[in-house]
Amino acid sequence: MIFFAVGLTVTKAQQIDILIKGGHVIDAKNNINSIMDVAITGKKISQVVANIPVNSAKRIINAKGLYVTPGLIDMHAHHFAGISEERKGDPMPDDFTFRTGVTTSIDAGSSGWKSFNAFKAHTIDRSRTRVLAWLNIVGEGYLGREPWEQNTGDMDATLTAMSVKKNKEYIIGIKVSHYKRGDWISVDRAVEAGKIVNMPVMVDFGEHSPPQSIEELFTRHLRPGDIFTHTFAGGASSRETIVDENGKLKPFVIEAQKNGIIFDVGHGAGAFAFSQAVPALKQGFVPNSISTDFNNGSKNAAMKDLLNVMSKFMAMGMDLQTVFKLTTMTPAKQIQREDLGNLSVGAEADVAIFSVRNGDFGFTDVRRTKVKGTQKLEAELTIRAGNIVWDLNGISIPD
Questions:
Q1: What are the φ/ψ torsions at residue 294 (nearest 5 degrees)?
Q2: How far apart are the C-alpha atoms of 32 and 336, rounded to whole Å?
Q3: CA distance 90 to 86
Q4: Which of 129, 140, 321, 324 sits 20 to 30 Å CA-CA off 26?
C-alpha cells in the first residue's frame, strides 16, 4: 500500500494521470514546505509524498528547481461592466488568470442582486477559471459612482441576501465601495445583509471628504471576519491611511487585526503606495491576503498582475512561503471556502508551478515610486481541475 500524506491509501495499480516530480511544494494548509511529488488522478489530487514511481503515471512533469503550490486565489478582481453589444468581446478571466497561476478569481462587487444573473451568464458560465463573487450592496452593481453607487434606495439588505441564498455556489460575501455621502448607510446595509446570510463583507472605504474614521469603521461597524481592502492606499483628502504622516503605523490597526478584521491588499490602479506598505511591514504589520483589484485601469499600470504584486512584497522583505500563504490558504479561509487553496488528497486538482527569476527588477506603486528587487515570480504551468491550462515553456510535453 502507498500512504497519502493525510493517512489515506491507494493501491500501486492506481493509474496517475499527471505526476509532478521533484518540485519544492509549498502548501500552507498542510504545513508542507519541502521537495515532494504531486499526483493527480482525474480531477483530484491523489498523492502528495516523496518519490512516487514514474511507471505509475501517464504524464510526468519534471518540476526540479521549481515551486509547486495550490492554484492561486485572487480575492479582489473585476470581470464585469454590464452587458451591451459593444462589450460582448471583452477579455474573459481566462485571458489573464492561468498565465499567472490563478485558478480562482473573485469578482469584487461588479454586480448586485439586479445584475448578478447577467454576470453569471456573461462571465461565470463561460470561464474555465473558477469565478466567484462578492455581491454589491447596490442592486445595480458597478454602473458608475454617480448616481447609482450613491443611491441608498438601491441598497437593500433583504433583496441582496435573497440573491446570495439563491446563488451560494458562486457568491461568497457582500461588497460595498465608492460611497461618498459621509454617513455609514452603505456599510451598515452591507453588514446587515452579511448577518442574514452569515457571510463576510468586503469594504472599499474612501472617497469621503473629509475622510471618515477607519478606527470607527473597525470598532463600531465591521465584524470579525469582515474585510478592509485597499489596505495600503496612499493618503489623500478623501481617505484615512493606516500609517500616519510620520511613518508610524496607527496602533488601532494592529488591534483591529487582532480582533478579527481582515486586511486585504487590493492593489488596483490607485490604491497601493510604498509610503504605506514599506513602513507598515517594517513595523510588523502583515496583510491577511494579497490581491490585485484587477481592472482596465490597473492591468497595464503599476499593478500588472498577481505575480507582480507578490514579487513586489518579496522586494519589500516578505518571504516566499508567506507570499504563497496569502494567496492560497488565507483567502480560502476568509471566504469560507477551505476546500480551495490547498493540495489535500481528494481536493480538486488546482495546481500551479513557478520559477523564481533572479536579476535586477523594478517594482512601482501607483504614485510612481519604485522599489528595486532581485527576484520575480513567473508561472511555468497551471492546472485547473486536473487539466493543463497554461504551460509557458512546454514542461508538460516530452522532448
A1: -60, 125
A2: 22
A3: 8
A4: 129
Cell of 120: 453569471
User: C-alpha cell of 1?
Assistant: 500500500
Q: What pLDDT sits at residue 10?
A: 43
Looking at residue 50, what is its pLDDT?
97
pLDDT at 152: 86
Alpha-carbon gap, residue 240 to 234, rounded angstroms: 9
CA 176 to chain centre: 17
pLDDT of residue 4: 42
Residues of the chain falling short of pLDDT 70: 1-14, 82-91, 144-146, 236
Counting every residue, how long is the chain?
399
- Within 10 Å of residue 142's Cβ, how many Cβ atoms? 24
Instruction: With CA atoms as reference, report the closest residue to 100 among 378, 293, 363.
Output: 378
Omega of the bond leading into 251 within 30 degrees of 0 (cis): no
Grid coordinates representing 193?
445583509
Question: Whole-angstrom Cα distance, residue 82 to residue 180?
Answer: 22
What is the distance between the alpha carbons of residues 362 and 378, in angstroms, rounded to a whole number?
Answer: 15
Using alpha carbons, select from 382, 330, 318, 241 the residue that is nearest to residue 309.
318
Contacts of 319 (CB under 8 A, 6+ apart): none
